[in-house]
Amino acid sequence: MAQPSKEIHSFSKGSPTPVLIVGAGPAGFMAGATLSLYGIPLRIIDKRPSPIQRGHASGLQPRTAEIFHSLGLPHELARYSNKMTETSFWFRENGELKRSKHSPEKDIFNPTNYPHVNIMHQGHTERIFVEDLSSRGVEVERPVEFVGFETSEHEEFPLNVRLKNLVSAMVEEVPVKHVLGCDGGRSTVRKSLKIESSVHQTSDSWAVAEVFAATNFLDARRRKYEGKGSELTNDKTVIGILTDRAKSLLHPFKIEIKEVESVRMYHIAQRIADCFCDVDDRVFILGDACHAHSPKAGRGMNVRMNDAYDLTWKLALTLRGRAKPSLLQTYQTERQYTTR
Ligand SMILES: Cc1cc2nc3c(=O)[nH]c(=O)nc-3n(C[C@H](O)[C@H](O)[C@H](O)COP(=O)(O)OP(=O)(O)OC[C@H]3O[C@@H](n4cnc5c(N)ncnc54)[C@H](O)[C@@H]3O)c2cc1C
């Protein structure tokens, strides 16, 4: 496991904060980057001791690349990512492996200046945000946990949030104007608001493994291997099954798994929160905290960052008095729709 980052040292006490972002994943980082670009003072906390180093979500879609551009980060994207311009489809006929077509990663219905998917693991994506936030004086405070909040009579900062420093076990009370719950699928912010979710679950077991593999397969950078099966019981079995599956799919090409970064098993499910904010438009949930998709087609991270961008430009304008607070209500209308 990675060592705790030095970011813990930026933990500061008690002063009122316009926006508190809970969770430094794709949604939290995007929220922080957008708000700080608008000059909105904020704090961002995460209970993990250090950022993700590598792995997890890897495909940044064209619309997300456009957002990076609007935040002034296109060069960083180009520096770390590999551009995937097309996907190859393969099939087996009479025992022979054949490539049926190349399909461009271009959305003909939504023209874009970025007709490709940027392939870059989540460690790099988060590093870009850490550097960007740091350039504007914002550091992620780690390991700090959001515990809960109460409302107060204070006109300007009506939420009293409790944060626990997981090293010192000290609990800090912070008056804030807004809380953005970007704290993932098991969101404590969502639970504090007592928001229920509708879940559509299948009985299929799926597995995703992130591996370093040596292969002579022609389209190694243009394909994803997916494994499926009810016999998925533990990491070792999963890797065995996925390796056998990849070998038989690719034969006569070869593939050898050199290192396993992570293995994840899950049931395919779609979950959507009944509501994305409290009645006063003070506390919002974003990203996996408010909706989850099947990981197929790599929508997770992109949709999460798009949630954050959608909410935070609106929040920035309302905090600066340039838009009516009712603008914030369009966040739920627009983002709930993306899960359907
Ligand atoms: C192996 C794997 C592969 C994936 N591949 C893809 C892909 O190819 N493409 C894609 O788009 N998506 C992919 N995803 C999905 C994607 O990673 C998630 O959808 C995305 O990370 C969700 O972002 P988020 O910011 O909403 O939540 P998270 O990334 O879950 O971040 C939540 C953060 O909140 C913190 N937190 C939680 N509770 C608290 C608390 N009480 N106090 C303080 N901090 C808290 C957590 O420590 C965490 O850092 C993949 C996921 C995995 C695991």
Please tell me about this protein's structure.
The structure is a single chain. The longest helix has 20 residues. A hairpin with a 2-residue loop joins strand 5 and strand 6. The N terminus is likely disordered. Helix 1 packs parallel to helix 4 and helix 1 runs parallel beside helix 7. The chain starts with 16 loop residues before the first strand and ends with a helix. 27% of the residues lie in helices and 32% in strands. The protein is an alpha/beta fold and 340 residues long. The chain has two domains: 255 residues, FAD/NAD(P)-binding domain (3-Layer(bba) Sandwich), CATH 3.50.50.60; 66 residues, D-Amino Acid Oxidase, subunit A, domain 2 (D-Amino Acid Oxidase, Chain A, domain 2, 2-Layer Sandwich). The chain contains eight helices and 16 strands. The strands form four sheets. Strands 1, 2, 8, 9, 10, 11 and 15 form a seven-stranded mixed β-sheet that branches. It is globular, with a radius of gyration of 21 Å. The structure holds flavin-adenine dinucleotide. Flavin-adenine dinucleotide binds next to helix 1, strand 9, strand 12, strand 14 and helix 7.
